[in-house]
Each structure stands twice: as C-alpha cells, then as structure tokens.
Amino acid sequence: MTRPRGGAAIAVAVLVAVTGCRAEQTEGASGPAKGGTGGAALAAVDSLTVKGRAPKTGYSRERFGTAWADTDSNSCDTRDDILKRDLKKVRFTGGSCRVSYGLLDPDPYSGKDVTYRRGRSQVDIDHVVALSDAWQKGAKYWDPSKRIALANDPLNLIAVDASTNRGKGDGDAATWLPPHKSYRCAYVAAQVAVKKKYGLWVTAAERSAMRKVLAGCPGQKLPTGGNPTKAPERFRAR
Fold first, then answer.
1. Do 167 and 231 meet the contact criterion of CB atoms below 8 Å apart?
2. For the whole model, what pTM was predicted?
C-alpha cells in the first residue's frame, strides 16, 4: 500500500484527472469512491473472478514503477494531482502544481477533519486496491505498463488521514474497512470498480465481504473513469 472525497459527480474527478494542474482548483472535488455513473456496484461484484490469493513472492513497489509518475502527461506528479482534487482550500508553492496546504474536510476513512501541510505526513494518498493485494490477485502476471497504470490511476487513488490509512496494510474488503462506517459503501464500490476495470480477481471471503457491505446500499453506483490501463511507453518498471 502507498499513501493516498468529495461529493460532486464522478465526471468532475475524471476532468481533474485529465486536466490535472493546468486549471487552478481551490475546493475539493470528487474522489474515486464518491458518486459514480456506472451500474449498481452490488451487481458488479458477481462479474469478478473468484480465486485464491497467490503468494506475495516477488512483490516490490518498484514492480509498479516510480512512485507518482506523471502518466497523464500534465506536468504534475500523480500525488499532487490527487491532493489538488481531494483537498479543500488548496494552496500551492511555485505555481499551480505543487500543493503546499489543504484540508481534508472530512477525511473519508476516519470522518475527522485533517490539515495537510507539505513535508508532514498527516495525509496519505492511498491505493484503494493496495498494490500488494493487486500483485497477489493477478498483477504479478501483467505487462509492467499495466502495473504502472494501476499505481497512478485516479480511480484507485484517494487522499486520506495517514494514521488511519496505515492500519490498512494491503488488506482487502475481507480484512479491512474504513472506521468511518458511512463511507464503507463508497469505498467497497471503488474497490469493485478498480478490480473490474483491471481484471483483478477476488477471494471468496473478499467477495462475500463486498456483497455484505453493498447489500446495505443496493443503489450504490459503480465509479467509472480514470486513466487508460496502459501507461505511456516512456515509463518503466522492474
């Protein structure tokens, strides 16, 4: 897992992901797990392949490329793109790309307000589907360009409280859910969306946990959008 709100339509999130730091934004927009324009997330669970978790052997962060690569070619790294999208009252250093300050109001995982200041680790950018989990459920066998795409896809990234996030590890829906219970439907829907988009499988326990959460919110939509599933050829991974 690496360290990654909103309530506007998912189209806003996709627009920001595409345009990135070129247009100044001073208020938070939609994260990948809020809203959605796809079909019901609960129905989508049954489209996921069910298999056992493969060994973690061979996993490293470097298998997914350099952290926060600018795969959308907007001259801002992925971390700043997500901070800019998810934080409110954003301030910048040296232009409109490098985020120096902002507010998670509230943090989706804990429900509390968190202040971001550059250089301090109170806000993480979380991979909703942790990279290690992805490795054990199909990504090990991918072309490196697809792994790089997953690691930098706004659909799979969200700014969250660091201390809460670090309890997640590489957990899936069967082993970790956000303490903020009102966010769980959106969170699980985002995991389903990412796994469906990239063809990652789920364990039987994971699928059961996803169904259990989403049964409580059968109208929860499946988030859509994000970046292509193949990174530009100039990017490399081990």
1. no
2. 0.85
Question: Computed over its alpha carbons, how large is the radius of gyration of the chain?
Answer: 16
CA angle 40-35-183, nearest 5°? 95
Read off the pLDDT of residues 28-81 as tens digits, 9 standing for 90 and up.
334 665 555 567 999 999 999 999 999 999 999 999 999 999 999 999 999 999
Joined together, the tokens standing for residue 150 give 């997953």
Q: Which two tokens stand for residue 231?
A: 């990174």
**74-129 confidence digits (pLDDT tens):** 999 999 999 999 999 999 999 999 999 999 999 999 999 999 999 988 999 999 99
SS (H, E, C) the chain: CCCCCCCCCHHHHHHHHHHHHHCCCCCCCCCCCCCCCCCEHHHHHCCCCECCCCCCCCCCHHHHCCCCCCCCCCCCCHHHHHHHHHCEEEEEECCCCEEEEEEECCCCCCCCCEEEECCCCCEEEEECCCHHHHHHCCHHHCCHHHHHHHHCCHHHEEEEEHHHHCCCCCCCCCCCCCCCHHHHHHHHHHHHHHHHHHCCCECHHHHHHHHHHHHCCCCCECCCCCCCCCCCCCCCCC
Which residue has tokens 């930098």?
A: 152
